[in-house]
Amino acid sequence: MTTVGWNDSRSPVLTEADIAAFEQENKVLLPADYRAFLLKHNGGEPSPRWFDYTDGTEMMLAAVQAFYAIYTKPETETGLSPNLNLARMFRTFKRMGSPRMPEELMPIGENGGGNRICLCVSGEHTGCIYYWDHEMECTGGGTYEDGTPITMWDNCHFVANSLTEFFDGLYEYEG
Predict the structure, then answer these.
(1) Largest Cα span, the chain
(2) What does the alpha-carbon distance between residue 47 and residue 100 come to, in Å, rounded to a whole number?
(3) How many angstroms separate the CA atoms of 63 and 172, rounded?
């Protein structure tokens, strides 16, 4: 089991009511381990931060730069980065009419290069963690040359069965 350290986060301390308000506003139910993480840390930068995933053909290496936080006050009042605001990132990637990722997923963190750490919040894989690769982003529709249908899941790679398992798999990169 990996012990994950967290930076000195300036994110606000949350209450259950803050999380419930986020869930209601965004019409989502958050898994228990993610709720516990938000109550304890509300975002931040983990150490260690590296993890492995497979793109379907080979093992890949990626890192978490930061996890998003629920802001309880406007960014203009707090000086916190709008880019780490969970509600803002939720709206950016889940906006109605033109979502950028499968409806079952929500972004909860990033690698700093445009890729996202996502949490599955509905369906049979609720609670699982996925890596969303923006270089392969697609909106679905159409087919590949071999006739395989293109889906919004094609750039989403399974990483862990839960946030807890994800944290347990983080390590220091020695390369």
Answers:
(1) 53
(2) 28
(3) 10
Does the CA dihedral 82-86-92-96 come out positive or negative? negative
155 contacts 102 by C-beta, under 8 angstroms? no
- How do residues 2-55 score in pLDDT, each as one tens digit? 789 888 667 889 999 999 999 999 999 999 999 999 999 999 999 999 999 998
Q: Please report how the helices 16-26 and 86-94 are oriented relative to each other, as an axis angle in degrees rounded to 10.
A: 20
Q: Both tokens of residue 110?
A: 């990033």
5-168 CATH fold:
SMI1/KNR4-like (3.40.1580)
Q: Where are the domains of the chain?
A: 5-168
Residue 82 DSSP symbol: G
Does the pTM of the predicted model rise above 0.85?
Answer: yes
Cβ density class 52-62: b for 16+ within 10 Å, e for less: ebeeeeeeeeb
Query: Interior CA angle at 67 toward 86 and 162, to 5°?
Result: 100
